[in-house]
Each structure stands twice: as structure tokens, then as C-alpha cells.
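User: Some background: our group keeps a shared notebook of sequences we're curious about, and every so often someone picks one and asks for a predicted structure to add to the entry. Today it's my turn. The entry only has the sequence so far, pasted here. Could you supply the structure so I can complete it?
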Amino acid sequence: MEASSGGCTCGQIQYSIGGPALQLVACHCGMCRRMTGAPFSSYLVVKEAQFDVTAADDSLASYAVTERATRHFCRRCGTPVFNTNPHTYTGLVMLYLGTVQGHETLVPGVAIFCEDKLPWVSLPEAAKPFAAAPRR
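Assistant: Of course. Here's the predicted structure to add to the notebook entry:
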């Protein structure tokens, strides 16, 4: 999975990715549904060392969703851009799929919190399902 850049809807936040993605995940937990307003959340997992916010001025804002997870978003347009969880997923950044340039061609390889999946949502054939989130 190669991805090289992305950003928010209004363009104030831009980022680059300097290496291959580790995984594309579809998360079906209730928290992701509430944060995105969607039936599930999809994100590209990359190494933090290969991720760089290249433009943000004062538009990049953060919200501690839990004591472990932080959501980073554009305060101007509201686009969720990425999540971090240094306690459980040290050294990783989870980029919201819709912000990644060329996301239309990517398919999730893993589906997590499938026990919470809405009954009318289908999983891609290629996605390995997990009842909860696997630990690193």
C-alpha cells in the first residue's frame, strides 16, 4: 500500500507520508461511529517517523477522545485528519482514509470491532475480521 500525501477538506492541513502504509483498517466500534458520523471508520496506519504535517498554520487541533487516544482535526473545516494512541500503538499514526490522496483504490485488509458492526454493513472479502482491536 503506497500513499504519499493528503490533507483536510479546506486544504489548510497537508501531510506527507515517506514510506509504505502498514495496514488499512475498517473500525466498527461505537466511538468511531460517533466521531465520524459514519457507520464505520477507515484509516491508513503509517509509521509516525514517516509522517510529516507539511502545512497546518493554526488549523491543526487535537481532542483527547480517551486517556490514550487523541483525534487531530482541522479547526477550520472540521475534517478529522489523523489519530494517535502512543500507549497502545506506539510510533504509529492512523490517517483517516478520506484524507489520503488516492484512497479510492485502497481496500481494508483488517476489520476491527466486528462484534459492534452494524448488521447491514458488509465486510470486504479481503478483510480479516477481529471481534476487538488486536494489540501490537
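Suggested note for the entry: The chain has one domain: 5-129. The chain has a mean pLDDT of 91.
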